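If you are new to this repository, start here. Below is one unmodified record pulled from the training split, so you can see the exact layout before writing a loader.
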Amino acid sequence: MDIHFLSKETAFIDAGVNLGLICSGEKAILIDAGIEASVAKKVLKLINEKNLKLSGLILTHAHADHTGGAAYIKNSLNIPVISSFQEKPFIEHPHLEPFYLFGGATPLKTMENKFLQAPPCSVDICLEPGKQDLLGFAVDVIPLSGHTPGQIGIAYEGTLYLADALFAPEILAKHGLPYFVNIEAALDTLDKLLQSAYDFYVPSHGSMVQNPVKLILANKKFLEELLDMVLSHVEKPQTATELLGKIFREKNLTINNPGQFYLMQASLQGLLSYLSNTGKINVVYCDNLLCWQRNQS
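And here is the target side for that same chain:
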């Protein structure tokens, strides 16, 4: 783990996920907090060694690999924690993630783990999109919805911290069915990023890039191929579980735990919702089971 400076005022820390760091003199703001307190402790040590003093912590979205160390940082330094309005409830009440993944019922105990449920952390400041002064930093809050409802990116001095709006190709290949709650929003985010112009782009999962076009197009192609794959399997009515099994086999994915299964199921639901809302598939009922079928008209 180390701090990698991109310019005098922007850097990132490779801490399992890439954490952003923006600086002005001795003041700094950290962007995301890593998966747990032990990671956050090492991050704070690195920042202290650079004689920087954190003024605040921005959380780009509520997933545990980004928020797991937030409570430790907040309690250690007594600094404000900052997020979007949409992500605040899930950061403050992280039990909601395994709850909604399990269909709105009490989840399996095995789903209450550090990968799906970070320690709760209160949020002090909620951000609206746009350019603004934040604790003395002139930041631009960029909406990056799709992966989660209220995910944000932070642009500062020529660097855009992308959160999980873009994934490295090897990450997409590894997971096979990446998590997006809103495919329409994710595609719109990718299109907007194609029109952007920053010196450095820092995704949370993958390497920093200066020209993001190839990476953006790879992400867009991956989503479009997933949609085509779903369509190819619903010529005849399929339940979501049947469809999920076919996708697992086609992508050679192996499921090892309930949390992984329900994340994948939610990912599929996002694809199905998009295809239904765009009129490409229909809901049908077979033996009282809700099924999905390609629109034949």
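Two things worth knowing about this chain: The chain is about 35% helix and 25% strand. The radius of gyration is 20 Å.
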